[in-house]
């Protein structure tokens, strides 16, 4: 049986490395912001042309608007991004009319967002994310000792942050749907963590074996290991089905979430209980006795 | 039989019958208020997010308030940079604190010479929000007149309107919704003071008229497309008040011209040949059938309080949505079958109970979604799949606890295991539930669709696990649960 608790320092190192890597990646690569957060026009089109042919075709658009054409993985669907400019409502109609005359291109979706509104959406999403995380923090704080709350919140911020790094690394578009994915990762992470906390709390309150903190930590993990693996496995199973079968513009969300499940499993098995221990929870337990 | 003594049996039956009753309307053709709606990303369609101009509204409101103070209390005021300035060299006794408060104003700065007032944030926001509600009705009637029946339109935030139209779109919608449609009639005026020149952008015709309109479009009661010598014209009629004004204006000014101005540009400037007492008139001037019809629609719906800007537009073709649904449903079914098989192989009989629990969870979820008239979107489908994941997780937690208790010869392993696992499940699900509620409250668009199915899903999962799964565990001897390895 693995002694999880004794591995905590190595785990901290792994986690620290991940955090530093994420900072570096985000610093150098930045986030691939979708039009939700950047404003602009977006077309999803179905076409049997190649990316080069499409690039050539879209040359008719003003040179002062940047055009980005990307093929969605494994399909004949392309996403065409056009930078925002003056009078988008009229511009989008013109583009639609021009494309409609081309028999090789079928418009599946067309949209635009004014940059002023996308700024509002960024603010809005930050509120949504921050308030949800705050609620999680408060709930854990009420239900457990502060060492648990601090550790649980660190783990979920860690998981969400590293997931953002993952998105940056693979150039996955950051949009409103991804905000939902990130919150889901936070939910999954805290879910896993709470199950362990509940165990550790009940083990440390048991008269016979409460003294050995390390054994209690290992037992909490051991007793839940099967559940952790089963749940991660079934969740990933369901998500894989979504990755392969979801419509082209929604495949990225389950991919990010699968990564989140993996990183969440890592943090709950190797990080959270170690942190609780290092926050001197043992001393708290002893003090409670005397 | 022991099974009939279980209160859970009766509650379970109630849940299943209830679910059936609430899901049923979804499969019936007639429209009902308790049905699941499909989002535009599923059925295809158009969505527009319109924003009313806050600054323009503030200015209008300042002018209106300043005029009101002048007319009611004979106190003159100036407007400057969002403030109302009232000079102190007049009798201000009538302007009590209560009057100021009722006008929604609050004092901004006091000096020896003048007081400056601004709208209190609360009263301005309330007024802005009321104005948007009013605009919602105007936009609704404009789109209705074009013949779109299934549209959904709602106020978003303080000054935004979300308009969603499923299916194919009449190309005129964008044209019709974004026009402010301020129609004004001005009499010709030759001297410069208080006059303004309006130009017809197409014909170049221009006319100098009195700046303050003699009659506004607010008095228009009805408008329609008609033909005058085979040419499309917009015929309109005024209400009683408007008719009187129009009759007075025309009878007193026979021989001079008046300008018909729409949103600041001249449409036409006919000469008044005789007094018009019937209260109706015609606007002609180079219309096509379509433009005349659009103008008629706009005129009879009334003008919007400010300019409108389309800040987000989305058009989703039906193929994308259909493909999405088909794929999403197939994905969900395959995921469900995979999880089911896995659970049955791993947990035997108990795994079979999980399958029943999942199916009940899904029926309860769809029943609640129908009851609440929820809109199901693709991110919502992902939320549902994850709900199933949480439901399975709850089952696994319970089974593992029971198995562990059994191994350690703890008394009453089933109940004890279920109860201690359920506390954990409550803790972990409630955190996610609270987070999802806040996500719903603050989020926009896809975030909302996702969080609503997560919220309903978690609640369903908690209920069916407590009632239905526990029922099966209770009535099955631990020997047969398949957990004693």
Quick structural summary:
Chain A is an alpha+beta fold. Chain A has helices at residues 8-29, 35-38, 51-57, 88-100, 115-143, 146-169, 176-204, 213-245, 252-278, 281-289, and strands at residues 40-47, 67-71, 77-82, 105-113. In chain B, the strands form 6 sheets. Chain B has a 4-stranded antiparallel beta sheet.
Biggest sheet layout of chain B: 4 strands, antiparallel
CATH-level-2 architecture of the largest domain in chain A: Up-down Bundle
Helix content of chain B: 40-55%
Strand order of the largest sheet of chain B: 7-8-2-18
Name the CATH class of the largest domain in chain A.
Mainly Alpha
Report what the structure shows.
The complex is a heterodimer of chains A (290) and B (485). With 290 residues, chain A is α+β, with helices and mostly antiparallel strands. Helix content of chain A is 68%, strand content 10%. Chain A is built from ten helices and four strands. Chain A has helices spanning 8-29, 35-38, 51-57, 88-100, 115-143, 146-169, 176-204, 213-245, 252-278, 281-289; strands at 40-47, 67-71, 77-82, 105-113. Chain A has a four-stranded antiparallel β-sheet. Chain A is elongated, with a radius of gyration of 24 Å. The model of chain A has no long low-confidence stretch (mean pLDDT 86). In chain B, 51% of the residues lie in helices and 21% in strands. The mean pLDDT of chain B is 85. Chain B has four domains: 2-42 and 319-480, Multidrug efflux transporter AcrB transmembrane fold (Up-down Bundle), CATH 1.20.1640; 45-53 and 124-178, Alpha-Beta Plaits, CATH 3.30.70; 55-120, Alpha-Beta Plaits (2-Layer Sandwich); 183-303, Gyrase A, domain 2, CATH 3.30.1360.200. Chain B starts with 6 loop residues before the first helix and ends in a 10-residue tail after the last helix. Chain B has 485 residues and is α+β, with helices and mostly antiparallel strands. In chain B, strand 3 (78-80) and strand 4 form a beta hairpin. At the A-B interface, helix 4, strand 4, helix 5, helix 7 and helix 8 of A face strand 18, helix 9, helix 11, helix 12 and helix 13 of B. Strand 4 (105-113) of chain A pairs antiparallel with strand 18 of chain B, so a sheet runs across the interface.
């Amino acid at each position: 049986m693995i002694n999880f608790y004794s591995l905590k320092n190595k785990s901290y190192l792994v986690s620290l490395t991940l955090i530093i890597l994420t900072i570096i990646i985000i610093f150098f690569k930045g986030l691939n912001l979708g039009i939700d957060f950047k404003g602009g026009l977006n077309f999803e089109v179905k076409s049997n042309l190649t990316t080069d042919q499409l690039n050539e075709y879209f040359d008719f658009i003003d040179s002062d608007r940047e055009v980005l054409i990307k093929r969605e993985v494994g399909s004949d669907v392309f996403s065409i991004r056009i930078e925002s400019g003056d009078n988008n409502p009229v511009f989008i109609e013109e583009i639609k009319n021009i494309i409609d005359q081309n028999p090789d291109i079928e418009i599946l979706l067309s949209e635009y967002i004014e940059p002023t509104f996308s700024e509002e959406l960024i603010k809005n999403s930050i509120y949504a994310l921050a308030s949800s995380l705050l609620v999680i923090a408060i709930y854990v704080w009420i239900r457990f000792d502060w060492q648990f709350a601090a550790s649980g919140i660190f783990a979920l911020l860690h998981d969400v942050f590293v997931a953002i790094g993952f998105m940056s690394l693979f150039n996955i578009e950051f949009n409103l749907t991804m905000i939902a994915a990130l919150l889901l990762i936070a939910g999954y992470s805290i879910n896993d963590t709470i199950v362990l906390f509940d165990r550790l709390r009940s083990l440390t309150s048991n008269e016979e074996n409460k003294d050995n903190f390390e054994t209690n930590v290992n037992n909490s993990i051991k007793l839940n290991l099967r559940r952790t693996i089963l749940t991660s496995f079934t969740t990933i199973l369901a998500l894989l089905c979504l990755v392969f079968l979801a419509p082209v513009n929604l495949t990225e969300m389950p991919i990010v979430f699968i990564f989140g499940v993996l990183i969440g499993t890592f943090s709950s098995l190797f990080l959270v209980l170690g942190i609780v221990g290092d926050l001197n929870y043992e001393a708290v337990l002893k003090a409670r006795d005397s | 039989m022991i099974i009939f003594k279980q209160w859970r049996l009766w509650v379970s039956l109630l849940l299943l019958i209830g679910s059936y009753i609430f899901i049923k309307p979804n499969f019936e053709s007639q429209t009902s208020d308790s049905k699941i709606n499909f989002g535009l990303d599923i059925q295809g369609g158009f969505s527009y997010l319109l924003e009313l101009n806050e600054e323009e509204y503030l200015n209008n409101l300042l002018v209106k308030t300043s005029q009101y103070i002048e007319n009611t209390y004979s106190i003159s005021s100036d407007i400057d940079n969002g403030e109302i300035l009232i000079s102190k060299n007049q009798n201000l006794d009538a302007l009590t604190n209560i009057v100021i408060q009722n006008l929604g104003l609050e004092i901004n700065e006091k000096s020896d010479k003048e007081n400056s007032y601004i709208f209190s944030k609360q009263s301005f926001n309330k007024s802005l929000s009321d104005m948007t509600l009013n605009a919602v009705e105007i936009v609704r009637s404009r789109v209705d007149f074009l013949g779109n029946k299934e549209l959904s339109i709602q106020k978003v935030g303080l000054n935004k309107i979300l308009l969603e139209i499923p299916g194919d779109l009449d190309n005129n919608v964008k044209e019709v919704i974004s026009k402010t449609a301020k129609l004004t009639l001005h009499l010709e005026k030759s001297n410069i003071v208080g006059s303004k020149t309006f130009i017809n952008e197409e014909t170049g015709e221009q006319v100098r008229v009195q700046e303050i309109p003699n009659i506004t479009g607010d008095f228009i009661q009805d408008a329609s497309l008609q033909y005058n010598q085979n040419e499309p014209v917009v015929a309109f009629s005024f209400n009683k008040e408007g008719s009187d004004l129009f009759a007075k204006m025309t009878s007193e000014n026979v021989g001079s011209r008046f300008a018909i101005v729409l949103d600041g540009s001249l449409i036409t400037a006919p000469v008044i040949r005789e007094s018009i007492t019937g209260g109706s008139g015609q606007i002609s001037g180079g219309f096509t059938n379509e433009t005349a019809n659009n103008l008629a629609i706009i005129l009879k719906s009334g003008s919007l309080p400010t300019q409108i800007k389309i800040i987000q537009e989305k058009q989703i073709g039906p193929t994308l949505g259909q493909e999405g649904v088909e794929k999403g449903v197939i994905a969900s079914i395959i995921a469900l079958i995979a999880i089911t098989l896995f659970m049955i192989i791993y947990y035997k009989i108990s795994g079979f109970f999980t399958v029943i629990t999942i199916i009940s969870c899904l029926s309860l979820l769809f029943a609640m979604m129908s009851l609440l008239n929820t809109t199901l979107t693709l991110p919502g489908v992902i939320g549902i799949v994850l709900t199933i994941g949480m439901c399975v997780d709850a089952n696994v937690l319970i089974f593992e606890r029971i198995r562990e208790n059994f191994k350690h010869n703890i008394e009453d392993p089933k109940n004890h295991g279920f109860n201690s696992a359920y506390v954990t499940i409550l803790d972990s699900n409630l955190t996610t539930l609270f987070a999802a509620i806040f996500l719903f409250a603050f989020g926009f668009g896809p975030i909302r669709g996702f969080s609503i199915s997560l919220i309903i899903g978690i609640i369903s999962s908690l209920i069916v696990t407590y009632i239905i799964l526990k029922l099966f565990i209770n009535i099955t001897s631990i020997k047969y649960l398949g957990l004693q390895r």
